[in-house]
Amino acid sequence: MQPLPVPCPAARVPDATGMDAFNAAYRQARQQRAVFIAVELQGGRWTVKADVLTAPQHSIDAAVYDVVREAVICLIRTRRIRRDSSAGPVYFVLYDVVSEPRARELAAALHAALYGDLEPLARAVPQTP
Questions:
Q1: Enclosing H/E stretch for 1
Q2: Among candidates 126, 120, 8, 14, which has minimal Cα distance to 64?
């Protein structure tokens, strides 16, 4: 596996469908000491996963976390992701994303936000400030 750019663009977000693919993507993020990001097909719908534990030196600014949390809440309220999705603060999961392109868009936007660039998240979830 090639090292992923930080933040990771949508086309490069790993597909972590299946245990082997998930473990490989997680291991790569841990080796790079980068925030883990991936999409995964579960029961015909897509899931976005992010985990900051793979980047122990990385911290998320409280204001950034607030924007990310609000974006996840907006997606839940508008029924674009499942209610049991998680808005961190360490592990983020967006369940039941309608398509792979949308999952990749949200994953890339979330990854960028976790590195302090909120613009892609504002585009992906327009209600986000």
A1: none
A2: 120
